[in-house]
Every structure is written in C-alpha cells, then in structure tokens.
Amino acid sequence: MKNYDIVVVGAGPGGSIAAKTAVDKGYSVILLEKKDLRNGGRYKACGGAMAWELIEKIKFPEDKIDRIIEKLILHHIDGDIYTKQGKGAIIWRDKFDKFLTDIASTSGVEIKQNEELIDIKKTDSEYLINTSKSKYSAQYVIAADGVNSPTLRKLRWEKFNKEDLILTITQEMGLNKKEIDERLGNDEVHLFFGIKNLIPLGYAWLFPKKDKITVGWGNQIGKIKNSRKEFSKFLNIPLVKQSIKNAELIRYTPHLIPVGVRPMLYNDDVFAVGDAGGIVDPISGKGIPYAMMSAEIAIQTIKYCEKKGKEEKMGEIYKKKLDRSFLSILKKKSELRKRIFQNDEKLKLFLNLWQNHRSSEIILKDLL
Ligand SMILES: Cc1cc2nc3c(=O)[nH]c(=O)nc-3n(C[C@H](O)[C@H](O)[C@H](O)COP(=O)(O)OP(=O)(O)OC[C@H]3O[C@@H](n4cnc5c(N)ncnc54)[C@H](O)[C@@H]3O)c2cc1C
After folding, report:
1. What's the number of domains the chain is made of?
2. What's the pLDDT at 39?
3. Which residue has a Cα nearest atom 29 of ligand 1?
4. Domain termination site, one of 212, 242, 258
5. Are residues 181 and 72 in the same domain?
6. How far is the CA of 353 from the centre of ligand 1 (A)?
7. What is the mean pLDDT of each run of 10 residues along the chain (368 residues)?
C-alpha cells in the first residue's frame, strides 16, 4: 500500500487545484479520478460560463474558448427583457478541466485516472482508501468528488437537504456557427425566468458555443413532479424553439447543483471542497471559481495549522478563511434567493436590479 500526505478525490476544478497547491507546498499527493481523462478530457454537464477575470487569472488560452461573451440577456416569460453587460467566456468543461489537470500533472501531482474511490475508512492515525484498482493510505483527505461525494457518503457525513439541491437537465444541440449567430447573436447568452409559468425556483438558459448550443434548465428538487415535462415547456418558448430548430440532439444529461453549504465542511482531517461542500452561488449556480478557491484554502489551512501547531483548530480555521474570502456572501445569497423566488413581482424587481448590480451588491446595499 502506498502512503501519501494527502489524497484528493475527484479531478474537477476543485481537485486539480487542491492537488497542485498541495504539491507546491511540499506534500506528497495522489489525485484520484474515476473517469477517463485521455482524448481531451471527460464530459461534464455545465453551462461553461466564466467571468473574464478568472480566464485571465489562470491564463486559460483564448484558442480553447468557444465564445467570448459581452452580455447576458435575461428573459422573463411574461415578455420583459433585461440586459446585463459584462465580459465572460463560454468554455467546454472537458477542455477547461483538462487544462487544470495538466497544470497539476506538470507541477508533479500523481494522477490516477479511471480509478474510482470505492471505500474509505479511518484507522487510529490515517485513512485507508480502496479504489477500483489499488489501495492507498493518507493523513488528509480532500473530498472534491462533486455533489454526490462518494467519499463523504462513505464517511457518513450528512446528506444535502432537498431544498438545497437543484435538478438540472442539459441538452447539447449541434448547429453550425452561422445559424447560431443569426439566431442568438454572437456574443450573448440567454437566461429565462418565470415562477408561475416556467420554473418555480430556478431558471433556464441557452448558452451558444462554437457549433453547439447548450440548452439547460434547473429547478429546486421537489418543486415539480415531472421534470421532463417541465423542461419541454421551456423548449416550446418561441425563441427557444426557433433557436434549436433543425439542430441535432447530441446529449441529454440530468445533473444536480448543490446550492446550500453543508453545515460541516471539515471533520477529522477530511475537507469538503467545491460541489462536495455545496460551495456554489445559490442564485446563479456558478460553482467553478468557488471549487477552485475552496480547494486552495483547504490546503493553505493544513499548512498554516501544521506550522502554527493548531491542528486541533483546523475545522474552525478552514471555515474562517472561507468566510473571509467569499463564503459569508454565498450564505447571504441563499437568503436573497428565497426572497427573489417568492413571486414574479420580486423576481422582476431583482432582474431589473441585476442589470446594473452584482447580486452581492444587492445584498450588501439591501437594494431588494
Ligand atoms: C447543468 C449545470 C450547469 C452549470 N453551469 C455552470 C456555469 O456556467 N459556470 C459555473 O461556474 N458553474 C456551473 N455549474 C457548476 C459547476 O459545474 C460545479 O460547481 C463545478 O463543476 C464544481 O467543481 P468540483 O471540482 O467541486 O466538482 P466536479 O466538477 O463535479 O468534479 C468532481 C469530479 O469527481 C469525480 N468523482 C466522482 N466520484 C468519484 C469517485 N468515487 N472516485 C474518483 N473520482 C470521482 C468526477 O468524475 C468528477 O470529475 C453548473 C453545473 C451544472 C450541473
């Protein structure tokens, strides 16, 4: 059995950044990923929208970007349209996540792909991990294995509450670029809202990529009975119907987004990062930057606590660092989310404000 300081489970954005940061700080690390990362990486159902600042920060190459976006068009089903300016990128997750695993690998991270965590147990002094191919032991565990986190399930952490889970449906529709540009514009993404007549608690979207449109829909789990039927209601909105006319259905994928932070993000040398911890913007569903930031903070916490001899305070310090960085705002956004989706009047008021303000600003200035 091979022994490591840290085992990281899951090679999404959270896992790759955790593993890279840990190697940079001198730890021995193994990164386990159940899927195949060869041939350009693995598919992940995602809108792939990213703020331009993040693209610049990580120096993501422009030739790997599918579209550069200048604005969001926010449609309310009653016919109102709102516009939000802001530069962003639309990317495919296979390319983006592969870019990050390649950075981790270049830094010296040992990556085991096609290797699934099957079981994990704590002995007196370390964790024993059984995978589909091998056995490992480690002092620390970073659970970066997404919303269903098998790691945290095996360790019997509490499950997410139903109201903290969004069920999404993603359809990838193939269409040539010229037609996409004519139908949806070449630098816009489209978001669709409507509590009474579209989605009780969530929104839907059309994200144009180079030669595909990502058609997505997400609603709080338990708020509707038949998600396929509700999704087809969205597909029948005239603009949506026209945009995907004669497009080829390439994929149909249901997936969950967690929109409520777990009450516990650390226990006994195990850290939850990214979706595994429910660390996602509860209004927009944006999770990639938070997965990356929480992963970095988890490793910084280990280093800091070891250096200062504060190992027994690791959980407290991880939470404090997260709160200071972004988590306290995400928690406040959960409250705002409840207010926005009370009724369509409130929702429209929010969409109107959102045109010119970040949602964090709407909270901090108490604008709604
Ligand atoms: C439909 C949809 C649209 C979204 N759109 C956006 C968007 O436009 N912008 C944005 O910022 N965010 C978006 N998100 C959220 C974003 O996708 C997530 O927040 C982000 O992927 C979280 O990263 P992560 O590293 O925590 O987990 P993940 O990206 O989920 O990675 C987890 C990894 O763990 C692996 N894994 C799971 N189980 C095991 C196991 N047993 N052993 C080994 N490996 C395992 C998985 O294969 C996966 O590679 C969207 C999500 C959905 C569902």
Report:
1. 2
2. 87
3. 12
4. 258
5. yes
6. 29
7. 96 98 98 94 95 97 96 97 97 97 97 98 96 98 98 97 95 97 96 96 97 97 90 95 97 96 96 98 97 98 98 98 97 94 97 95 93
215 and 232 belong to one structural domain: yes
Same domain for 156 and 12: yes
Domain limits for position 188: 49-91+162-258
One domain for residues 24 and 121: yes
pLDDT of residue 193: 98
Take atom 50 of ligand 1 and give the residue whose Cα is closest.
46
Q: φ, ψ for residue 65 (rounded to 5)?
A: -90, 135
Q: Give the number of the atom of ligand 1 that is nearest the alpha carbon of residue 150.
A: 41
Backbone angles phi, psi at 278, to 5 degrees: 75, 30
Q: What token pair was written down for 138?
A: 């480690």
Pocket of ligand 1 (CB under 6 A): 9-15, 32-35, 44-49, 116-117, 144-146, 150, 168, 170, 216, 255, 257, 274-276, 280, 285-288, 291
The per-residue pLDDT for range 224-253, each reduced to its tens digit, is 889 999 999 999 999 999 999 999 999 999
Claim to verify: residue 104 and residue 191 sit in the same structural domain: no
Classify residue 351: in a domain, yes or no: no
Claim to verify: residue 28 and residue 115 sit in the same structural domain:
yes
Give domain status of residue 340, yes or no. no
In a domain, 136, yes or no: yes
Report the distance separating Cα 90 and Cα 79, nearest Å: 26
The domain that holds 293 is classified in CATH as: 3.50.50.60
Any idea what the CATH number is for the domain that residue 238 is in? 3.30.9.10
Report pLDDT for 246: 96
Name the residue with the closest Cα to ligand 1, atom 26.
274
- If asked whether residues 63 and 110 sit together in one domain, one would say no
